[in-house]
Amino acid sequence: MKKNKKLSLVEVISMAVGTMIGASIFSIFGLGAKIAGNDLPEAFILSGVYALIVAYSYAILGGKIISNAGPIAFILKGLGDRIATGALSILMWLTYVISIALFVKGFAGYLLPFIHIEPTSFSIGIVEVIVISFFTALNFFGSKAVGKVEFYIVLIKLSILLVFILGGFMTINWGMVKPGFDSSHTSGLLNASIIFFLSYMGFGLITNASENIKNPTKNVPRAIFISILFVMLFYVLISIVTIGNLPLPDIIKAQENALAIAAKPFLGNFGFVLITIGALFSISSALNATIYGGANIAYSLAKDGELPEFYERKVWAKSTEGLYITASLGLLFALFFDLGAIASITSTVFTVIYIFVLISHLKLQKEYGGNRILLLINLIILSIVFAALMKYQWDTQRSAFYGSIFTFIGAFIVEYLYRKYRKRELKDNRISTYPQQKI
C-alpha cells in the first residue's frame, strides 16, 4: 500500500542532500566569503567536521531509537520528561521557524536582481510577505503534487550546480584560491565555519523520518554519513570554483546572490540566469519542505507533547493555529533581522539541541553503544563551537546575540507555562528502541 510505503536508502539520502545543498548554500555563501575570504573551502571542511561529530551520536541513536521526533526522542530517552526536554522541543520547532526566515531572505536576494528591481528594505520586505503568504496558503490547502516533484527539483538543482562546477574548473585561477594562514585569516576561517555549520543541518531530517525508512537500524546511520560526506565534497568544489573565478570583493558585494554573479565570468549571462533559477527552485523547495515536513510536526510536538499519528499536511488540521503562528514568526524574524543575524541565530539554536543530544548519548552509552571518550571529546568541541558562536554574535552582531538569548528564554517560559497550566507531558508513544546487542 502506498500509505505504508517506506523510503529507500537512496530516497533518504536524496532528501537530506536536497535539503543541505539548497537554500543555505545559495543564501549564505556570500556571507561566508565576507567572513572567511579565500579560506572558504577550508571553512566548509571544518564545519563538515563539526557535522560529523554530531552525526556520530545521531547515527548510533538514530539507528536504535526509531521515532519521527528525531533528536527530541533521543533527549527524552536520555534525560526523561523534564522542563529542559520540553523547552528543547519548542526550540526544535523554532529552528524551522527561523529557517523559514533564512529561506525567504535568500529568495528575495536572488529574485529582485533577476527581475531588475533594486534590493531595498522595502522591496525585500514585500517579497518576504508575498512568498511566505504563498507557501502558507499552499500548505493550508495541501498540494500532493508539490511533494511528488521534490525528488526532481533536487535532481535539477544538483545538475545546475554540476554545470557550475565543471564550467568553473575550466577557467579557475588557482592563485585566487590560495588560503591565508595569518591570525586574521584564521579568525575568519573559524567564524565562517561556525556559521556554515547550519549548511549541514539537513541531515537531521533523516532521523525525523526514521519511522518511514526501510530497515532504519542500518539505513539511518548510512544515510547520515553518506549525505554529509557527499555534501561536503560539493560545498568545497563550489567554493573553489567561486573564489577561483570571481575576485573576493565582487563576491562580497553580491552577497545576496553570490553564486549567480560568480557564474558570469565563465558562463556569461546564461550562467547568471541558470544559477538564479536553480536558487529560486531550491529555496522554494526547501521552504515548502520546511513547512510541510518539519514545522507542522515540530509544532505539534512542542504544543501537545506527542507526535501526531500521520506524517502529513493534515497535521495542521489538528492544531489549525500552528500554520499561522509558524509562518507569522518566520516573517517577523525575516523582517527584523538581517541575513547574517538569522544565519547565526539558526546555528546557535541547532548547536544547543546538538549539545543535549550528545549529553543524552553519554547517558545512554552503555545501553546503546558508542565510545565514551570520543563522546566526551565531541561534547567539548561542540561546546567550544557554541561559545565561539556566541562570542562572534556579541562582537559583530549584537542583535543576533540578544535574539538567541530571547529565543532560549522564550522557549523555557512557554514550556514552563504549558506544564503549569495545561499539565503537559512530553511523550512519543510510537518510539521503537533497539538497544546495543551484547554478544
Based on CA atoms alone, the radius of gyration comes out at 21 Å
Low-confidence stretches: 143-148, 310-316
Number of domains: 1
If you average the pLDDT, what whole number results?
A: 83
Number of helices: 19
Per DSSP E runs of 2 or more residues, the count of β-strands stands at: 2
The best one-word shape is globular
CATH classification class: Mainly Alpha
User: What is the share of helical residues?
Assistant: over 70%
Describe this structure in words.
This protein is mostly helical and about 450 residues long. The protein has one domain (about 1-425): Amino acid/polyamine transporter I, CATH 1.20.1740. It is about 75% helix and about 0% strand. The protein has 19 helices and two strands. The chain has helices at about 10-20, 25-35, 40-60, 70-80, 85-115, 120-140, 145-150, 150-170, 185-195, 205, 215-245, 250-255, 260, 265-305, 315-320, 320-335, 340-370, 370-395, 400-420; strands at about 65, 430-435. Strands 1-2 form a two-stranded antiparallel ribbon. The two termini are about 35 Å apart. About 55% of the residues are buried. Mean pLDDT is about 85; it is low at about 145-150 and about 310-315.
